[in-house]
Amino acid sequence: MAAKSSTISGIAFIILAFLFTFMTLSDGGYSGNPILEGKYADPEAAVFGKTYWIYPTSSLPYDEQVYLDAFSSEDLVHWTRHPEIISSKDIPWLRRALWAPSVVERNGTYYLFFGGNDMHEKGEGGIGVATASSPEGPFKDALGHPLIDEVVNGAQPIDQQVFTDDDGKTYMYYGGWGHCNVVRLSDDLLSISTFEDGETFKEITPEGYVEGPFLMKRDGKYYFMWSEGNWTADDYRVAYAMSDSPLGPFERIGTILESDPAVATGAGHHSVLKGQMRNEYYIVYHRHPLDQVDGNDRVVCIDPLVFRKDGTIVPVKISTKGVKGARLGRRNFRMF
Ligand code: FUB
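That is the input. Now the predicted structure with beta-L-arabinofuranose docked in place:
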């Protein structure tokens, strides 16, 4: 009898220990959507160390877009705002329309690429770069002038995204007005270099492209994604292409993010966040709440991004639930 009860207690102990371990290693609740409080757009997500970061545009009238806030999280659920990581006082040539930041780290320095002044004519603004010694800034303009200050191949110099390939080459994808260029950045990320064929700007515009390019690599394939439609309207959306080269060609495969009249409208200008598990990807994007009245009523949301076995992407179901909490550096125990 005593032996039987000690076996039962032993089993109970093992079950309790298992549950305790599961509860402490698993990640808790859901983020909900939107994940950031306030009006923000064009979110670019990044991971630095064990922390997730989101760098969005302040979704305001152009003349008031003279600063950027950043947000950090340890678990995708709780986000901390870092106010004014850069502002017009740190960028001598910036007057307005500080847009779509893209932040990368190299050798301990953080590089923040941004669009400034909604450039239409050469000399009015363009794409700039600022540096800082930590991801929350403070960032200071690195050049005293834009990195790209002209319209090449019809592409307005805005909406840049910086991608470094496995061979160490760094590319910058950018462009508004329905045209997209790719350039190569120099090793110090502060100037534009040339491609092997001597070209500086390569136009890679896919069918339907409007703005907001984003390139990522997965299992040896390059995924190029972009926004279509009008960012103030319901038809704003994201489409994608796949290629064997970071320079394309990029042939449109389909739409992966769009309005859902039951949830929100104008879902677009996204980035992709890679989680710790092999197939753990998130799409971070902005959308208009259903009761929005103004084009700038944009909020930042997150949903899972799922790849099929053949590498194609399952269209995202935009949600109010968001994603399940997930810490970086956790043990590979989480159940999907
Ligand atoms: O937020 C300013 C502009 O709106 C971005 O640069 C575009 O991509 C659009 O989202």
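DSSP finds one helix and 20 strands in the chain.
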